[in-house]
Amino acid sequence: MLEPIKNNWRILLLVVVVLGATVALFAPQFGPQTAPGENVSEAQQGVTNLQYGLDLAGGTRVRAPLIGYTATEVDFGGDQPDEVARAVAAELENASARDIGAVPEENAVEVTNPTVTESEFRAAMDASGYAYEDIRSGVTQETRDIAQEVITSKINEAGLSGGSVQQVQSLTGEYFILVEVPGEGREDVIELLEERGTVQIDIAYATENGTAIQEEVLIQDDFEDIGTAAQADRGTGAYVPVTVRNTAPEGEQSPAHSFQQAVDDRGFASAYNSNQDQCRYANGSLSGERNPCLLLTVDGEVVNSFGMDAELADSMASGGWATDGGFRLTTSEFSEAEQISINLRAGALPAELDISGQGTSRSISATQGENYKTYSLVTGILAVFAVAGMVFLRYREPAVALPMIVTALAEVYALLGIAALLSYPLELAVIAGFIAVVGTGVDDLVIIADEVMSEGEVNSRKVFNSRFRRAFWVIGAAAATTIIAMSPLMVLSLGDLSGFAIFTILGVLIGVLITRPAYGDILRRLLTIR
Amino acid sequence: MVAIEVPEVNYTEYSNRQLVAIPLAVLVLALAIIGGWFLVTGAPANLGLEFTGGVELRIADDGGDVEQQIETAFDRQPDSVRSIPADDVYVVTFRAADEDPEGLANDLSTQAEEAGLSTNAIDQVSPSFASDTARTAIIGVALAFLGMSVLVFAMFRTFVPSLAVVASAFSDLVVPIAVMNLLGIQMTLGTIAALLMIIGYSVDSDILLNNSVLRRTGEFYESVNRAMRTGVTMTLTSMAAMIVMAIVAALFGVDLLRNIGIILSVGLCADLMNTYLLNVSLLRWYKFEGVKR
């Protein structure tokens, strides 16, 4: 009973691997992970568990650095981070303390305001009196981590399923944020990423000689219970329902109270008495009755200005509003409200992504991806036919050639199984790797066949084994060189090519360890049992 | 049925010098082409988008005079417009301008949209990222070549045969680059992958030859012919796969696969020449003259 297993274990191993690959490819347990709000059948692309990458499924990939400068090895001198930030900000004309981040864990101070140049920041650091080693471009690790989190939740909030966000480092040590969103066009993704998404409310009010703006009456952190965008009950506008936080540390006014105070101070209650009272604000100045206006500001730009219901203004004036804190951020368009809702929930990006300058992006439409899928399948099949044709022409003996082709195909099948198991997204480069594997695989099978059949009949097991071992030395050496040649690609960040390298190496390993020994056994059975 | 028989070459008719002359001449010519390219263009090859930076758009050809539209749609003159009939698209390439390429991809896709063209895919590579990629690629190829050389020397532990393998691998790398320049194929990430693949692929037949001659008993010419029978079959099978891949992928406009296919086909061709002329003659010299010293 055990004897046949022992004699044919190589073939059995190949069968086990092929069965394993089948399970990995088709069993629902190995299906792709589902994104939030997605069910299994949606996550699955086609009948197999294979995942298709950007090239074959369509989607957008963006790789861009976060804009900013960081002073390294800063001596904080025992000062608190916010003290340091304020001191540096005070030396910069165009930046507030919110644009400066002081991270004691990294001994670093960063500026994230894109208008600040390197020399300005250097001058500010010098003037602030904190000793530092050098200024480099880029932001701190902490900021990158926050940015990664924010982008991830932005993508999820926007309902773009299956997106991934990573930090990658280039050869020169620069950090980039790499965002991949399958099935989504370039514009949608870039729109989402390009906005930092800082939302704030300012108040515009009339003064004797014009219009003044009280900035940051409400900032992002002051909002809680952010609702989804909704169409306004009347008119064409839309709004996001929010609640303004009514809690604060000891001895400080809560945001709700201070907002209420500000609204009252600017005279909303006396200005808005009926529906006839309107806010008229354009290009930085009030017109008409010059009623005070609330300005909804996103990334420093006023996206909408609006007045206030008489009722609401009155409840603010009487001081009753703050306990409840309900408020509507009104916009003129629904899509704008949606964007603001996403920004508020996901939080603001701690620094801007430099997509148009140093960014690299790739976007492929779903139809183009579908086409690429078909083309690469056709290319792969034709390449296999070419190899098969050559092998048949050379050996003319189906007993030698047929197992050769079957074995080479088993190798690719096993690789597909691994790809499904790892949920590794298939890209064009990976397909190229598969075709390369068929090429090398058959090469080695040719070596085995030639070696075994050289010098006359193979009539005993012993002769076969010694010839097979000889052939195997060459195969092992060839495999080792291929692995060595491919390994730099695996670790260097050269885009899709790591996939190519990984699958070529895996293919070579499967070949040497599993399929080629099995081919040897098959050949032995065919040649010795006669 | 026509069978492929690998012909036996009668090496005794030729001296080592005669055998080496052809591959050396080809190598020198290839190096001269690459050197000349470097002097004229400042780069050893035609660098593709990934190494220069820029924007590439794949514009759907949905009937009508798309080519005409492309001519007029953009503010900037495209650097190249290629038509791929099998995929019904035009590939339009813009090199990164020396002036700031701020928002180039955005502008171009908006301009394409305004002109009523539908964009199937858009690739944007920033110049700084491109120069980074170029450096990484060179390091990658150098590391791979170095690793392969060390491994070969470790496996054979004799100087001349190891050198023969490394020398023909070097030539296998250089010849395809020169051919790429002449054919106007751009250096892209795909071609880098192909070059690394050549390092892996091409030494197979050299190792087979060295193994047959050095580690097996038997007369020199018999060993060479035995290795050649297997080696030529191997190389031709791989070449068949690569040529088919290159042709099919070129028809469909899948550049990555096409480039890998072309480069590997040329590299394997060069490998046939290098293995059975350069490597054989070095081995013969080593076997008959080198060992005696």
TrEMBL record, chain A:
HAMAP family linked to this entry: SecD_A
Transmembrane segments: 375-393, 400-422, 428-449, 470-491, 497-515
The protein's name in its UniProt record: Protein-export membrane protein SecD
Residues of the Protein export membrane protein SecD/SecF C-terminal domain: 362-513
Subcellular location as annotated: Cell membrane
Superkingdom of origin organism: Archaea
Function: Involved in protein export.
The UniProt record lists the keyword Cell membrane: yes
SUPFAM superfamilies membership: Multidrug efflux transporter AcrB transmembrane domain
InterPro entries per UniProt: SecD/SecF_arch_bac (IPR022813), SecD_arc (IPR024912), SecD_SecF_C (IPR048634)
The protein's assembly and partners: Part of the protein translocation apparatus. Forms a complex with SecF.
One Gene Ontology term, aspect cellular component: plasma membrane
Gene that encodes it: secD
PANTHER family in UniProt: PROTEIN TRANSLOCASE SUBUNIT SECD, PROTEIN-EXPORT MEMBRANE PROTEIN SEC
Family affiliation: Belongs to the SecD/SecF family. SecD subfamily.
One Pfam assignment: SecD_SecF_C
Topology of the protein relative to the lipid bilayer: Multi-pass membrane protein
Keyword flag Zinc-finger: no
BP terms from Gene Ontology: intracellular protein transmembrane transport; protein targeting
Entry keywords, A to Z: Cell membrane, Membrane, Protein transport, Translocation, Transmembrane, Transmembrane helix, Transport
TrEMBL record, chain B:
Keyword rRNA processing on entry: no
SUPFAM superfamilies: Multidrug efflux transporter AcrB transmembrane domain (SSF82866)
Subcellular locations according to the entry: Cell membrane
Family matches, as InterPro entries: SecD/SecF_arch_bac, SecD/SecF_export, SecD_SecF_C, SecF_arc
Topology class, membrane: Multi-pass membrane protein
Protein export membrane protein SecD/SecF C-terminal domain sequence ranges: 116-287
Keywords: Cell membrane, Membrane, Protein transport, Translocation, Transmembrane, Transmembrane helix, Transport
Primary localisation category: membrane
Top-rank taxon, per record: Archaea
Membrane-spanning residues: 20-40, 137-156, 163-183, 189-209, 230-254, 260-283
Protein name per UniProt: Protein-export membrane protein SecF
Gene designation: secF
